[in-house]
Design a protein that fits this description.
It contains 1 helix and 11 strands, in the order βββββββββββα. The N and C termini lie far apart (69 Å).
């Protein structure tokens, strides 16, 4: 199997003509000329995955990719995010640093290091609805358009316990009993 052809494997090719080292493919997507001796420059690029945005409750941008002005930063200025117990949703957007007109990157994620990975998806975001209180390590992994896995990106998330569940209130409950 040729990794260089993976970006077009999902396309429905209706006509194919081979002329020496060139393969002409046509379909609903248009016309593609593939040269078997040409090596795509992106193929040698080792892609990285980045967390691009963190949004709380669909309206509060916690991290938007910019830090210290209008410069797009690849890394976040923090390692851990803490949310109050009343948070309704946390949306995390991510992407790889390889733009592609053919073939999509695929992503999978997990909330804790020991958890099972989600299924691969082309959606570049995940929404965590009504997160429970506790500590999480959100981890996202990508697969580039050639099918190669990319090292994961991590973000520590803490959802605080409600005030009535904190240690000092539990101590008050025990004393009252």
């Amino acid at each position: 199997k040729n990794e260089m052809l993976r970006p077009i494997e999902a396309l429905s090719v209706r006509s194919l003509a081979v002329d020496g080292q060139y393969a002409w493919m046509g379909g609903d997507f248009g016309l593609i000329c593939w040269n078997s001796s040409f090596r795509d420059a992106d193929f040698d690029h080792k892609a990285k995955i980045y967390i691009r945005q963190v949004v709380m409750d669909n309206d509060s941008v916690i991290w938007g990719g910019f830090f210290g002005g209008d410069k797009l930063e690849a890394t976040m200025p923090f390692k851990k995010l803490t949310f109050d117990s009343d948070v309704k949703s946390i949306t995390i957007r991510f992407s790889i640093d390889m733009f592609s007109t053919l073939g999509n990157a695929e992503y999978r994620y997990r909330l804790r290091s020991g958890d099972k990975w989600s299924e691969w998806s082309t959606e570049p975001y995940v929404t965590i609805s009504n997160p429970r209180s506790g500590d999480y390590t959100f981890e996202v992994m990508a697969c580039d358009r050639y099918g190669r896995e990319i090292t994961s990106a991590k973000l520590d998330i803490v959802v605080s316990y409600p005030i009535y569940m904190r240690w000092y209130f539990i101590l008050v409950y025990v004393l009252l009993l």
